[in-house]
Amino acid sequence: LSFAFFLFAFLSCCTFFSWSSLFLFFVLLLVLSIKITMGLFWSEEVKEDKGSEGLLDKLPQVPKDEDGYVVSFGIDEKENILKFFEEYGFVVVREVIDNEQIAKTLDELWSNTEELSIDSIKRDDPATWGSNWPAGQVGILGNQVASGEQAWNNRQNENILRLFQYLYGKEAGEGEGELLSSVDRYGIMRPTVNVPLGKDTDEKEDKPRWRGPPSWLHWDLNPWIWSGTAPPVSFEQKKFDVLRDGNFISEMNGSPPDLCPIKLQGILVLGDSKEDDGGFLCVAGFQKILKEWAKQNRKASSMSFIQINKTDEMIEKATPITARRGSFIVWSSELPHCNYPNKSENFRFAQYIKMFPSKMVEDKEGRAQAVKMRLPKDYVVSEVGMQTLGMKYYQPPPDASSSSSPSSSSSSSSPS
């Protein structure tokens, strides 16, 4: 296509010579030269080379418990959590929030869904679930962060903080470790089997068109830059987006390994998630072969979101990570991962939360200002939240009243 434009511009210059046409010719010549030089530099999709087939055979099988869920652990089982994570690159920790906290989160999630649809969706009326659905087919709710009180409580949850502290270890900092929480979105997937046609009818039908793509397996990092097989690129733009307009959703996606050699992501599971219910999928154990894979599959890309080709053999190695409600799934960003489609009668609900060392944030005060603007009015920040929300760095504007500064209370309604 680029060559066709080049040829068209050249012929135009020959036929209708003018300085403007000559300028167009040289611009297109420059574009074509860059594309030829950079090759796949702008590509978001990669396909595995044949030389990697043996690597994938090294990947482990994910163990399950007697109920068919992926093996999980209590938050106090630190040694088992670390051992499992080292082998598989992810771990499931159960009961990080209780049923009351789950119910409050789900109420906010539904309110968020209804608001994003401009009130055309009603949680208790299945007839409204088809139009103006804001979550898209991959199950991520809109482009706005989860901003209700319980969503913020979950970001200052002590159990979730402890889990990330275990996994970051010395990278978290001295003492208890200083980690910041991401400010991200909810996830929701509609049921696609035996869906009621309305609240006042017993009629039901399947909705296969509501299912997402079978796979959009990807990394939220650049595997070549991260593994050191390609040179690093600037990380400044992501920092600017947060400080300028509070764009937290992709914060730290492009962070280089020299800031922190560990990169983690997480999901708070808000409903029992069995294999047919849709949810989180990953290539377990890939963190052990990432560097070798990157060497064997060299591509030139500067992007921090890299998608695996839909025909790649790696797709077959991905495993659904089933989990009970109230569990938290944390995984290494080195694992290819995605959501997979819902093929059941149940909704899939989740909240995306990750934590990262505060040392990765250069302007902590500026980030704290951006977070403060997102907090609900009169929100009480807990002692844990002073760290995870970064409010310990907040400085009220000189003309602000004393009541505008974030309050801290050990008796906060924040979960522990």
From TrEMBL:
This protein's UniProt keywords: Membrane, Transmembrane, Transmembrane helix
Region (Disordered): 391-416
Residue spans of biased composition, Low complexity class: 401-416
Database matches in SUPFAM superfamilies: Clavaminate synthase-like
Coiled-coil region: none
Keyword Transmembrane appears in the UniProt entry: yes
Transmembrane segments: 6-32
Pfam families named in the record: PhyH
Organism: Paramoeba aestuarina
Listed InterPro entries: Phytyl_CoA_dOase-like
Keyword Transmembrane helix assigned: yes
Superkingdom in the source lineage: Eukaryota
Name this protein carries in UniProt: Phytanoyl-CoA dioxygenase
